[in-house]
């Protein structure tokens, strides 16, 4: 499984970001530009995922890691974001609400 850290995420440009946290978590604050596809809905919303490589984030990295493993098994080019949104906020990066 491919992974990047928050510093690498902050430097990336043009790579779609999928946030697999639940809707209320996402609404409370998310990485700018992230698209919410909750892990609980992921299997039913695969058609909404990008056709190109994309990153997957959650709160700390556990749910996104599970999502990436499942998506890789289906042929998606997905990368896990270690540390998740919690680490993004802890490092002082901006969030959208």
Explain briefly what this protein structure is:
Helices cover 32% and strands 16% of the residues.
CATH architecture level-2 label: 3-Layer(aba) Sandwich
Listing every helix as H and every strand as E from the N terminus to the C terminus, the arrangement reads EHEHEEHEH
Number of separate strands: 5
Largest sheet: 5 strands, parallel
* Arithmetic mean pLDDT: 97
N-end to C-end Cα span: 30 Å
Q: How many distinct domains?
A: 1
User: What is the approximate shape?
Assistant: globular
Task: Give a description of the structure.
- There is one protein chain.
- The chain is globular and about 35 Å long.
- It contains four helices and five strands, in the order βαβαββαβα.
- It has 97 residues and is of the alpha/beta class.
- It has one domain (20-90): 3-Layer(aba) Sandwich (Oxidized Rhodanese, domain 1).
- A five-stranded parallel β-sheet has the order 1-5-4-2-3.
Write the layout of secondary structure elements.
Elements: E1 2-4, H1 6-11, E2 17-19, H2 23-28, E3 35-36, E4 54-57, H3 62-73, E5 78-81, H4 84-90
Parallel strand pairs: 1-5, 2-3, 2-4, 4-5
Features:
alpha/beta; Thiosulphate_STrfase_CS; Oxidized Rhodanese, domain 1; 97 residues; Rhodanese-like_dom_sf; single chain; five-stranded parallel β-sheet; Rhodanese domain-containing protein; GlpE_sulfurtransferase; 5 strands
């Amino acid at each position: 499984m491919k992974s990047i850290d928050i510093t690498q995420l902050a430097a990336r440009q043009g790579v779609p970001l999928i946030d697999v946290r639940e809707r209320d978590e996402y609404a409370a604050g998310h990485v700018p530009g992230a698209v919410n596809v909750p892990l609980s809905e992921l299997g039913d919303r695969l058609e909404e995922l990008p056709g190109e490589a994309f990153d997957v984030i959650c709160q700390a990295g556990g749910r996104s890691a599970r999502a990436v493993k499942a998506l890789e098994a289906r042929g998606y080019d997905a990368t896990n974001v270690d540390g998740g949104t919690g680490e993004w906020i802890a490092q002082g990066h901006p969030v959208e609400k």
